[in-house]
């Protein structure tokens, strides 16, 4: 009985995993991007603490989160069922220095929506923990995780992640609470360098991919032509083979006819011989009588 329950639970879990992974169809040219590169593309980056988790209102009316998800229900959101999405109320600990669209002071409270288990990427948080968030704002001013390149948008507060994102908060005014990023100042220069490198590396990578794609297209076209040519050669060979076969057959028929003809001639010859032996033709008969008469 217990094993049955365990089995059913396992099946249930797999069924759920199935709904999460099913339908995650990334574009074929998709490549993972580094955190640094995605940080350059993220609209808003904040460091914030989760105060509370709120379930999304089921069903969702017009203007709800369901209508404001990126790409409709494509790419990652089609697996999101009712109740799997939730929002989180966070306290802003630090906003990005420049370029942030948010511009709310430290200590402000915000509701982030669009969190939950999705088919390609999951944006999940736990109460009372701090995270680095890549965020974006939709047209209804909902603040959502910004899954740049369909990758993680929420990063736990580990020392590695602090090191990675410290330069983003280098000049921000996070005077309240802890100032976790200033301890990593020696790394900033390196980070700045790598961030500058990132876009050029990225551009080179895209160019390389584009070139590769074009070459592949050319190769495919060449292969197609080659296949067509082979097909034509095969057809030509086949008709040549057919022609040879027909010629051989005609020759054979001619030979057979010739043999038949010879046989017929032979038969006619025999017949004539037989006739001359049994009953000399009148001409010959006449000539012998003539000869006999002349001898007389
Ligand atoms: C966040 O959403 C919850 C539930 O909808 C609400 O009770 C709370 O006041 C909201 N907080 C802010 C800061 O908007
Ligand atoms: C979060 O912290 C508050 C206050 O310290 C506490 O009451 C609450 O139970 C904590 N929640 C979780 C999920 O640990
Ligand atoms: C930084 O924050 C403090 C207090 O929160 C404020 O007085 C100060 O004007 C802020 N500085 C800038 C440049 O925003």
Could you walk me through the main structural features you see in this protein, from its secondary elements to its overall organization?
The chain is built from 5 helices and 6 strands. It is 47% helix and 15% strand. Mean pLDDT is 74; it is low at 1-22, 60-64 and 66-83. It starts with a helix and ends with a helix. It has helices at 2-21, 35-41, 159-165, 188-278, 282-295, and strands spanning 44-55, 85-95, 109-116, 130-137, 143-145, 154-156. A hairpin with a 5-residue loop joins strand 4 (130-137) and strand 5 (143-145). One 2-acetamido-2-deoxy-beta-D-glucopyranose (NAG) binds at residues 173, 175. One of its GO terms (cellular component) is extracellular region. Keywords: Signal. This is Coiled-coil domain containing 3a. Residues 1-23 form the signal peptide.
SSE series: HHEEEEEEHHH
What's the pLDDT, averaged over the residues?
Answer: 74
Shape: rod-shaped
- Sheet with most strands: 6 strands, antiparallel
The secondary-structure class comes to alpha+beta
Bound small molecules, deduplicated = 2-acetamido-2-deoxy-beta-D-glucopyranose
Continuous helix count: 5
> How much strand?
15-25%
What level of helicity do the residues show?
40-55%
Compute the separation of the termini in Å.
141 Å
Please give the number of β-strands. 6
Low-confidence stretches: 1-22, 60-64, 66-83
Radius of gyration: 46 Å
Organism: Sander lucioperca (Pike-perch)
GO cellular component, one term: extracellular region
InterPro entries: CCDC3
Protein name: Coiled-coil domain containing 3a
């Amino acid at each position: 009985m217990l094993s049955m329950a365990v089995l059913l639970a396992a099946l249930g879990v797999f069924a759920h995993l199935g709904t999460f992974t099913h339908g995650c169809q990334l574009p074929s040219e998709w490549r993972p991007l580094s955190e640094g590169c995605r940080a350059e593309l993220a609209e808003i980056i904040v460091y914030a603490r989760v105060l509370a988790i709120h379930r999304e209102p089921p069903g969702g009316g017009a203007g709800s989160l369901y209508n404001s998800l990126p790409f409709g229900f494509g790419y990652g959101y089609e697996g999101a069922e009712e109740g799997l999405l939730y929002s989180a109320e966070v306290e802003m600990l630090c906003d990005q220095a420049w370029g942030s669209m948010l511009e709310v002071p430290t200590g402000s409270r915000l509701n982030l929506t669009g969190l939950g288990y999705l088919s390609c990427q999951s944006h999940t948080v736990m109460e009372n923990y701090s995270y680095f968030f890549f965020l974006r704002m939709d047209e209804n001013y909902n603040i959502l995780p910004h899954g740049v390149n369909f990758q993680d948008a929420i990063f736990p507060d580990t020392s590695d992640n602090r090191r990675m994102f410290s330069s983003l908060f280098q000049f921000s005014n996070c005077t309240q609470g802890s100032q976790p990023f200033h301890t990593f100042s020696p790394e900033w220069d390196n980070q700045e360098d790598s961030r500058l490198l990132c876009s050029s590396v990225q551009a080179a990578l895209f160019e390389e991919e584009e070139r590769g794609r074009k070459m592949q297209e050319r190769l495919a076209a060449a292969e197609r032509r080659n296949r067509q040519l082979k097909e034509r050669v095969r057809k030509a060979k086949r008709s040549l083979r057919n022609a040879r076969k027909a010629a051989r057959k005609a020759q054979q028929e001619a030979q057979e006819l010739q043999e038949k003809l010879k046989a017929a001639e032979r038969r006619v010859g025999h017949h004539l011989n037989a006739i001359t032996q049994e009953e000399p033709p009148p001409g010959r008969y006449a000539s012998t009588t003539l000869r006999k008469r002349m001898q007389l």
